[in-house]
Design brief:
Chain B: Keywords: Membrane, Transmembrane, Transmembrane helix. The complex is a heterodimer of chains A (about 260) and B (about 120). Helix content of chain A is about 75%, strand content about 0%. Chain A is an all-alpha fold and about 260 residues long. Chain B has helices at about 5-40, 50-55, 60-70, 80-85, 85-100, 105-120. The two termini of chain B are about 25 Å apart. Classes of the chains: A mainly alpha (about 260), B mainly alpha (about 120).
Chain lengths: ~260, ~120
């Protein structure tokens, strides 16, 4: 029975990530108190949105009484990156039932995506199109020798995962991160109400973004996108409706594309 | 700063962002099922047009920088005043830690330690 094995493997692989998720979630809880949200609203954001960076940006803009469309649009722009994850992981999930897919999609995060795709290994086209979960039973009789050798050379264990195994592994990673995120949010709400404002705990929010930003600037185009986006956001910080964030981000994305073209 | 929006408005924002974020997450996962049922062939792996994928690649650095920079940099009348701002110094130290460790907890710890040192001790 492979089901519990893969579920456990997913949870085990997610545990090291808790160290990064917990402070992030606690910071969100503290910031929610600072922004004047009720505990229910803060937990509501963590449950309904379940995407840290956009949740923090939402708090930031709500606290400054930014225009509502700007608040929503900013959060959506931040979460647009998950379009890529959705497209990239979709072939692995294609044989699952619709309701299962919807549930797994709800749990999709940067970490769940990255760990799962790494665990699954390269996509096998024959399986991607098949609708059965038990293909690995007789796969050795069906496959041409060349293809099998190729795949054995890359990664023997991960490629034998059935769609059901993949679902369990993903669930192990994604659901445990979800649970930790909710508990961390509540912990932050409790902490946040007890800390005096003079401590400046709200500064932990940009620090979390900074910790995510630095590794995201990994080559020339991404560094250009970050540097230009940041500088433009500082210059346009005085714009009405807090549009500076969207203007900075947009100009930064264009700068990244221009830098990429310049290198080719 | 605390929000002055009424609770109902905040809830509308929470639900709107929640629904739209789910739509983003489910988009291609749902689309693949629809495409399969329509055509039966599986040449749809290149679901995101290359140009869109290229632009999406720059969303994280651009958005994160647009969030970080204004929170850390305050433009003052003189260069010296701008550079000696305690948030900029704390942010600079935290950036160095983020660069070396890529660790969220260490980045927060060093950034807050520098900020508190400058605020309460210097």
């Amino acid at each position: 029975m492979n089901v519990p094995t893969e579920l456990r493997a997913g949870i085990r692989d997610a545990v090291p990530l808790f160290l990064g998720i917990v402070p992030f979630a606690v910071v969100f809880g503290v910031a929610a108190v600072d922004a004047g949200l009720s505990a229910a609203q803060a937990v509501g954001l963590s449950v309904f949105v379940f995407a840290g960076a956009s949740q923090l940006a939402t708090l930031d803009l709500l606290a400054r009484d930014a225009a509502i469309p700007v608040v929503v649009l900013t959060a959506v722009v931040i979460n647009l990156r998950m379009l890529m994850y959705s497209a990239s992981i979709a072939p692995y999930f294609r044989s699952l039932a619709g309701r299962t897919k919807a549930f797994l999609a709800y749990l999709l995060t940067d970490q769940a995506y990255a760990l799962s795709v790494a665990h699954y290994g390269p996509l096998d086209r024959t399986e991607a199109a098949s609708t059965s979960d038990d293909r690995h039973v007789d796969e050795n009789n069906r496959e041409p020798d060349v293809e099998r050798r190729e795949r054995n050379a890359t990664n023997q264990t991960t490629n034998t995962l059935s769609a059901a195994d993949r679902r369990w592994y993903y669930l192990g990673v994604a659901a445990s991160l979800w649970a930790v995120w909710q508990v961390g949010t509540v912990a932050g709400l409790v902490v946040g109400t007890g800390v005096p404002e003079s401590w400046g705990l709200e500064f932990t929010v940009p620090l979390v973004f900074l910790a995510l930003l630095v590794p995201a600037m990994k080559d020339v185009p991404t560094t250009a996108a970050g540097a230009v986006g940041g500088v433009v956001a500082v210059v346009t910080a005085g714009l009405p409706l807090n549009l500076g964030l969207l203007v900075g981000a947009t100009v930064g994305i264009v700068a990244g594309l221009v830098a990429e073209r310049g290198r080719q | 700063m605390t929000t002055t929006y009424p609770a109902t408005t905040v809830w509308v924002v929470v639900l709107a962002i929640g629904v739209l974020t789910f739509a983003i997450r489910f988009s291609f996962i749902a689309l693949f099922g629809v495409l399969d049922r329509r055509s039966g062939d599986d040449e749809s792996d290149q679901a995101v047009p290359p140009r869109v994928a290229a632009a999406l690649r720059y969303v994280p650095p651009a958005v994160l920088a647009a969030l970080v920079f204004p929170a850390v940099v305050t433009v003052e009348p003189t260069v010296a005043e701008t550079l000696s701002n305690e948030r900029l110094l704390a942010g600079g130290a935290a950036a160095a830690v983020a660069w070396r460790t890529e660790n969220v907890l260490a980045t927060i710890a060093v950034g807050m330690a520098v900020l508190w040192t400058l605020q309460f001790l210097v």
